[in-house]
Inverse folding.
């Protein structure tokens, strides 16, 4: 039995103590290599989750598109109605009712604009979001 084994009761207890101490010291210092490995693992996991989500929700694509078309159609119909009523009010003899109708519809358009922006962002900006986020973080925050 070695000196350390006699001191701690057995050679295996001494080895365990040394292993735990070295593991503790290793965990105290987070190297840039370990940061890079952890970051790569996080990005890989996030990509895997997105791909898995896309696979699991693939059957809902038709429903999403149908909802997007319905919302966009209502928004566009309201927008065109306001334009037609506003132009018709110029030539009509009783403009007050036409302008009031246009104002009511205009208020409804304002309530739907958020949904329209969400749809436009989902269908057109989603593929570019990682670039947008990285640019924003590099400008306004720390990326490392």
């Amino acid at each position: 039995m070695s000196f350390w084994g006699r001191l701690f009761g057995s050679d295996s207890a001494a080895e365990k103590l040394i292993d735990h101490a070295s593991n503790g010291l290793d965990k105290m210092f987070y190297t840039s290599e370990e940061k890079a490995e952890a970051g790569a693992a996080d990005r890989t996991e996030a990509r895997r989750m997105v791909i898995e989500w896309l696979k699991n929700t693939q059957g809902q694509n038709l429903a999403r598109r149908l909802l997007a078309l319905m919302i966009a159609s209502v928004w566009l119909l309201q927008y065109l109605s306001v334009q037609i009523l506003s132009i018709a009010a110029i030539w009509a003899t009783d403009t007050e009712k036409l302008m009031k109708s246009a104002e009511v519809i205009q208020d409804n358009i304002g309530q739907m604009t958020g949904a329209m922006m969400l749809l436009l962002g989902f269908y057109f900006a989603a593929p570019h979001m990682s670039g947008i986020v990285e640019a924003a973080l590099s400008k306004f925050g720390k990326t490392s």
Remarks:
- Residues 61-140 form one domain.
- Residues 61-91 form the longest helix (31 residues).
- The mean pLDDT is 76.
